[in-house]
Amino acid sequence: MARGVRWLGLLIGIAVLLAVLHNADLPGAWGQIRTLRWRFGVILLFYAVIFGLDTLGWQFALRQDSQHRVSWMRLFWTRLAGEAVNYITPTASLGGEPVKAYLLSKRYGVPVADGMASVVVAKTTFTLSMFLFIVTGLVVVAFSTPLQGALLKWVWITLPALVLLFVFFVAVQFFEPFRRGAGLATRLAPAWLSHLGAKVQHWDRTLIDLYRQSPRRVLLSLGWHFLGWMAGIGEVYLILKFLGVPVTFLTAWALEALWVLLRSSAFMIPGSLGASEGFLLLVCFGLGINLVSGLALGLVRRARELFWMGLGLLEFSRER
Known about the structure:
By secondary structure, the protein is mainly alpha-helical.
């Protein structure tokens, strides 16, 4: 049932994307994109900065003794492989997290319990930092830009729903999520999952211990992820400047925060396909930004996502 809903989400995303491209001025957007030329390489490299900051967020979610086993660069490529799996599969951005833990164990000898705990904590600090970033963006919007009614309505619908989901996600972590998940999986496929019982209890203890014994590392993880979101403002500002769109840094901040908020509601659709572009046009309309330029921004970001996720899939393909 859940899998059917996710694949339905993918089909809806494709339909929305086709509708957006059909009704938008695609030739005009393509004309703007063509002016980038060598600047597109700068945009690709800038995303490496954003991804690198988030990699630091994951690095501090690892236990200190496990962190010494793997360098930041190795974590960068491991995270890229996991995020590529998240990007292409309808698993609510969670399917790639076990992949990260598996690769850490397989390649660098990080205990599976540490790897699983680190991806859960990193996902938590990543999401919490996203909410902090959205709040700062809404403050900027409140003092700088009046929003159109439709956009404001979407904001007040999406934000409370995502907050409730996040609170549920955090609460579940303190009620033995790995043991309960393994118990459910064992009932579905007992023959090859029965050996997980003792292991997952250790995973649960490791997760809780990471929160209790290393609060400073958790806060550092939160801080690096927040810087990653802030760097996203710089990317939006840079792309719009390269496209010849006059925009202030505060406008780029408001655009990025609102876009992050709305496209997060499409987490069930792989890569937020279609929904991301549609929500971007809604945000641009609400902020008074030319829709052709908004579409060009969305397509440029989609192209750089495909480039980096392609590299991530190549990295993942190293494991047979």
